[in-house]
Specification:
Length: 196
């Protein structure tokens, strides 16, 4: 079943797990990190050194869960299974072979990405990139036939503000629910056909 379950529920202390050696094997999840409520302090997980994780690493927090979240630093070469990111507003990032989590800006098919650009790059033709609620000082370039949509509130009002340019250069691309402001300059460029 599970070898380690790190359950971060304390509102007075951080919860830290460091694995630097040995083999940890789990048939369901070898390591499960869970942060379950809005008052919990941060859960910290470090996997490195000579550790071998023979199974999956599962990261979980609900959408209304811990505001401090989960922080990880995991050497990819130590993990023999998958890293499953079930964090509602965080993206799994692999930089130079080390996994960490970062605030997500967008998602594609339930997978969170640390930037709008990364989500658009990952999206396949016909897929939808959903930009999470927030203000973004970026240019958004839609260069393939995908849908890019912003998060909305219960009344259908956009919760996404793009403070930069929107450039659409792919035929058949769809863009909706974005507030685009480029400080008085041209806010966007449409250089494609059949753009909605």
């Amino acid at each position: 079943y599970r070898a380690f379950r790190q359950f971060a529920n304390s509102s007075t202390q951080e919860n830290t797990l460091v694995i630097n050696g040995g083999t940890i094997k789990g048939t369901n999840k070898a390591v499960w990190v869970q942060s379950s409520n809005a008052h919990a302090n941060q859960a910290n997980l470090t996997i490195g050194g000579e550790a071998v994780i023979d199974g999956d690493v599962y990261l979980w927090a609900p959408a209304n869960g811990a505001t401090n979240g989960i922080a990880v630093s995991m050497k990819a070469e130590c993990i023999k299974g998958e890293v499953i990111n079930a964090l509602s507003d965080r993206a799994l990032v692999n930089v130079n072979g080390v996994y960490s989590v970062a605030k997500a800006e967008a998602s594609v098919n339930g997978t969170n990405y640390e930037s709008i650009k990364a989500a658009i790059a990952a999206a396949q033709v016909g897929e939808t990139v959903t930009i999470l609620a927030g203000d973004y000082a970026v240019n958004v370039d839609v260069n393939k036939a995908i849908t890019v949509e912003g998060a909305v509130d219960a009344e259908g009002n956009s919760l996404v503000n793009i403070n930069g340019k929107l450039n659409v250069t792919a035929n058949g691309a769809k863009v909706k629910n974005l507030n685009v402001n480029n400080g008085g300059s041209t806010a966007g460029y449409i250089g494609a056909k059949d753009v909605l």
